[in-house]
Write a structure and sequence with these properties.
Radius of gyration of chain C: 20 Å
Shape of chain A: rod-shaped
Number of helices of chain A: 2
Number of strands of chain C: 2
Strand content of chain C: under 5%
Strand content of chain A: under 5%
Largest interface: A-C, 30 and 40 residues
Oligomer: heterotrimer
Structural class of chain C: mainly alpha
Distance between the termini of chain C: 34 Å
Distance between the termini of chain A: 60 Å
Chains: A mainly alpha (about 50), B mainly alpha (about 260), C mainly alpha (about 240)
Order of helices and strands of chain A: HH
Structural class of chain A: mainly alpha
Strand order of the largest sheet of chain C: 1-2
Number of strands of chain A: 0
Helix content of chain A: over 70%
Largest sheet of chain A: none
Number of domains of chain C: 1
Chain lengths: ~50, ~260, ~240
Amino acid sequence: MMDFLNMGGYGFYVWGAYGVTALAIVVELASLRARARAAEKLAGRDER
Amino acid sequence: MSVKGRPEREYRSAQREGHSVITAVATFDDAPHYGALAAIRWGVARDLRLALRSRSELAVQILFYVIVVSLFPLASSPERALLAALGPGVLWVAALLASLLSLSRLFASDFGDGTLEQIALSPYPLPALVGGKILAHWLTTGLPMVVLAPVLALQYGIEPYVLNVIVLSLLLGTPVLSLLGAIGAALTLGARGGGSLLALLILPLYVPVLIFGAGSADAVRAGLSASPNLSLIAAGLLIALVGAPFATAAAVRIALD
Amino acid sequence: MNLYQLSSPATFYPIAGRLAPWFAWAAAICAATGLWIGFGVAPTDFQQGDAYRIIFIHVPAAWMSMFVYIVMAFWGVIALSFNTRLSAMMAQALAPTGAWMTFIALWTGAFWGRPTWGTYWAWDARMTSELILLFLYFGVIALRNALDDPRRADRACAVLSIVGAVNIPIIYFSVVWWNTLHQGASVSPTGSKMNTIMLTGMLVMSFAAWFYAIAVVLWRVRAIILERERGSAWIAALPGLARA
């Protein structure tokens, strides 16, 4: 397990890269969900 | 009296000779010809005349270029070697910034008073009319920078053989800046965000020109030939000459709809 | 169903809603498989140690950053040629995802470069043009937000993305045209010089990135359709909208 986290001494770089990628995915999905919710709300309000 | 667009006696003589009436009137010699060259000439002449009427505005833009170039030696150490290395890059960056600042006057005032709409409605090809305006813009913005570069380069102690390359790169590159900048100016007509938006749109396109322009001087300083970099700028100029007027015309029509 | 019917937002909206979860699951499965190959199966590299494992994110993200831009420019061409709203909405939906892919490519590239080349960043041809790509994405998004008329924004962003598309070949071929710090192309249509397991892991992760992008873009275009088409009868008839 420690070997896995350590990545042969390059742990900071590998997990720094993967971690920020995971963060970017989470942020993109979260902002997309917020946008979809807001759009649905607006569309629900504007029915003719 | 003219019949079907041709003088009557020609029409009658064609009939007598047995030509069918349709072929006799097949050519419309007196139809007006809306040529590109005339459109370019018109665009250049009008914009130059307008620009020279407000000479102080032109002077301000050129002064901006001079001041920006003069700032860097003040900010960094006046050590000769460092300045000579920085010089070409600074001249080029200042050219980019001065070009960005001056782009707004390409279309904005015409857009504001409705002239641009009339220009777009004209039977002359819009890319040619726009091309004329871009040429006028370069003559009043880019060309002065090319001419001033040797004088300003004195502040940086740039060697003469490098100076030649800088002037040549600016001569090839500043038209590209005007051409690409015109696309951005047309796209952002009347948009919020003004000059900053234009900068954001145009600077990514300017960066390759900057890299090759300043790079040509760096190559010569390193003892290599400048022709790879200069050839690439020239290639970019050719592509921009062909493509940018059409892209700009499309953007103008989009802005006017 | 006639393919042209798909160009109606009303028709496409439910189809996108049904397709997106499939692509999302496919992305998750590919990612799990790819990461298992990348961390569980692939051996440690002789020269770079375990730092090379960043490749399983970096290369797929870089490929997607270029591919998404090309697709965005493609939809821009379609929107200008046929004046279709949905094509422009697709282009609008692609821009943020492309920007994220570019950011991930740049960040993971920097974190890979530091242990292997000694620097987070170098101004070489490929890195510089990838950074320019990020600014091109920002420019398209900024222009969209700056123009009030959505139809004018559609056309203007289409023109801008087409003009910027000239950057994509520069990024891709930069490692061929210039002597550059970034390594040359290891994968090409004719074959690869890479270890097979590493290559497999990278390809599986590329599919993961592609399916992820499709799912996210389909979800985003649904939100855009709702934003821009609101007030239409078909939206009012949609079940399940949160009524305010």
